[in-house]
C-alpha cells in the first residue's frame, strides 16, 4: 500500500469515527451558545477573504423538555479592502413541543473583521435582538425555551489564528442589555409541563467565552471534512426575580459546555458550495435557563461567491 493510500485510508477512518461519536452523543444534553459560534469569521475556514459572498441556511435540532427547534438564516459577507471586511446575518427560529409552537425573527448580527496578518484576524461586532423574549400563550408569558431570541443586545469580540492547518478562534460575547421575559413557573397549573421550567422573570443573562479548534482534511478534490472542538464557558450564574421580586441566582448556570462539530464542505464549482454541519455536546452545564440547549443540531448551508 502506497503512502497516499495509507493517508486516504486514515482520513476515511477519522471521518467515520467522528460521525459515530456524534451519533452516540445525540442523546446527551446541552449545546448552549448565544449565536456567536456561528459567525462567519469564527467558523472553520471562515476567515478567507472573499469580495462578496451570500449564504442561506437552515437547521434542525432537539432542545430540552421534548422541544424541537428549527431555524434559518441569510448572510452576506463583503471584503471592503485587503484588510477590512463586514458580515451581516439575519436569523429566524421556531420551536414546537408540549402543545406549544412559536416562530419569529430572532437576531441581526453585524460584524467587522480586520486581517492583521496572514495568520491573525480580529472581529468586532454586535448581536441586535429583533424580539424582546416575551412571547406568551393565552396571555401568559412563556419560558425562554419558547422564545425566538435571547432578547439581549450583545457585543462580540474575537481573534482567530492559523497554526499551519490548525485553526484557533477565541471570542467573548457580553450582553449590555437584558430582555423583557416575565415567565414565572407558578403561574401555570400544577399539572402543566411548564410548571417544571426555570423561572426567568426579569432574566439577567451572563456572558460567554469560546475557544474553537478546527482541523480540515481534504477528502477529495471537491470534498473537505473539518473536525472542530468547541468549548464555551458561561462566565457567571444567571439571575431572575421571583414572585416577590427578589433577585435570585440560578445555581449551576455558570460553567462549561463542550461541543463537537463535523463540517462537510462540497465544492459544486469555483463559485458555489454546499456545507453540512453536525454538532452535539459532550459536557454541559448543570442549569441552562436560556433555552439554548441542543442535544444535537444539523445545519445545511448553500453559499455563492461573486
Radius of gyration: 20 Å
CATH architecture type: Beta Barrel
What distance separates the N and C termini? Answer: 42 Å
Text of the CATH class: Mainly Beta
Average pLDDT = 89
Question: What class would the helix/strand composition place it in?
Answer: mainly beta
Give a short account of the largest sheet.
12 strands, antiparallel, barrel
CATH topology: Porin
- The fraction of residues assigned to DSSP E strands is over 45%
Binned, the helix content reads: under 10%
Uncertain runs are 12-30
Shape: elongated
Strand order of the largest sheet: 1-2-3-4-5-8-9-10-11-14-15-16
Order of helices and strands: HEEEEEEEEEEEEEEEE
* Total count of domains: 1
Structure description:
The protein is mostly beta strands and 306 residues long. The protein has one domain: Porin, CATH 2.40.160. The chain contains 1 helix and 16 strands.
List the main descriptive attributes of the protein structure presented here.
12-stranded antiparallel β-barrel, Porin, mainly beta, 1 helix, two-stranded antiparallel ribbon, 49% strand, elongated, 306 residues
Q: Which helices and strands appear, and what pairs or packs with what?
A:
Blueprint: H1 3-24, E1 52-62, E2 68-79, E3 84-97, E4 100-115, E5 120-129, E6 136-137, E7 140-141, E8 154-163, E9 166-175, E10 208-218, E11 223-234, E12 239-241, E13 247-249, E14 255-267, E15 272-283, E16 296-305
Antiparallel strand pairs: 1-2, 1-16, 2-3, 3-4, 4-5, 5-8, 6-7, 8-9, 9-10, 10-11, 11-14, 12-13, 14-15, 15-16
